Amino acid sequence: xxxxxxxxxxxxxxxxxxxxxxxxxxxxxxxxxxxxxxxxxxxxxxxxxxxxxxxxxxxxxxxxxxxxxxxxxxxxxxxxxxxxxxxxxxxxxxxxxxxxxxxxxxxxxxxxxxxxxxxxxxxxxxxxxxxxxxxxxxxxxxxxxxxxxxxxxxxxxxxxxxxxxxxxxxxxxxxxxxxxxxxxxxxxxxxxxxxxxxxxxxxx
Length: 204
Known about the structure:
single chain, 8 helices, 69% helix, 204 residues, disordered N terminus, 0% strand, mainly alpha
């Protein structure tokens, strides 16, 4: 993959995530408010779009990454919902902004195409870059246990039936030959050593 195509793929992924994230954050926050109504305030998507102007970095209780213009959106969301960039907040953002896009894209493919790497490479890379971007914004090391669990789960869901011939056991004949060869060589080597020793003793 060339640097240009990788850059275009990353830019497309990022713009898709940003547009989708800004339109769905209202649903995310309302879902959290239903769980914790006494400790949170309503945070609309229109508020998210003006987070930089309304809150600013000084309003945060923690440091926020500045690798992209989305970082303040993520950090303000975590600040309002959890009060900190916790793994729980990373889980919410990754699930709604990264994993759901991946699952939707995979659902649009035939299940027989899931095992063809060229068909899923871009989707897989987009998911990885999305989780990395959010983690970096929240200053959470990447990869981390949550990301690892996410990829384990998608492998179990989408790729468990894919053949892995390159990792499978060799045919039984080859296994037998590899095992029996050193076993047969041991007595031959011992016999040669004994024979050489006897010849050496007889000549001295």
